[in-house]
Amino acid sequence: MEGYLCGLLMPSSSREAYFALRAFNVEIASIKDASKLIGGRSRPSSSSSGGSGPFDMDNELGESQGGDTTLPSRLRMQWWRDAIADVYDNKSNDAASPSSQDPIIRSLTSSRKFNPTLRSLTHAIETHGLTYRFLRRIMEAREEDLSITQYEKRRDVAQYGEDTVSNILYLSLETVG
């Protein structure tokens, strides 16, 4: 709520970029929450199987069926890292490049083209010259946070805040000029 109200107070020339940054932050932050939802639903209860079925948590087969819940999250983070890097590298989607003939690459490129958050962020980067280092630090901190359930030290929490929230603030200041 306060992010929206602060955005309304931004100069009109910076408002669109500010909201693009906020949307990007929400997208990146929600990756961890989505992995928790997937993890919560992917493991069946072992108490109903009597302890010796395929869904027994001690059974090797049952464990492999649960899978790594961070893999989809890491893939989403990689998609964002690649997409932001492409924006800064000014890569065009050449049909002549050999990798673009691969249907998976074409699908990923197409998903980048139609993602509204990425399109808004790209416009903000091009219009305001946002610093890549700040976006990269946000993505790195969020990815490291995927495997952390609870921070052990206050210093770690402070560093996470510096790498996420502070960088959003620095980028917001860049939009103003």
Map the helices and strands.
Elements: H1 2-9, H2 12-42, H3 60-66, H4 70-89, H5 103-114, H6 116-128, H7 132-145, H8 154-176
Helix pairs in contact: 1-2, 2-4, 2-6, 2-7, 2-8, 4-7, 7-8
Radius of gyration: 20 Å
Order of helices and strands: HHHHHHHH
Distance between the amino and carboxyl termini: 24 Å
- Fraction of residues in β-strands: under 5%
Low-confidence stretches: 42-67, 92-98
State the helix count: 8
Q: Structural class of the secondary structure composition? A: mainly alpha
Main beta sheet? none
Shape: globular
Protein traits:
177 residues, mainly alpha, 72% helix
Give an overview of the whole structure.
This protein is 72% helix and 0% strand. The chain is mainly alpha-helical. The chain is globular, with a radius of gyration of 20 Å. It starts with a helix and ends with a helix.
Task: Describe, in short, the structure shown.
The protein is mainly alpha-helical and 177 residues long.
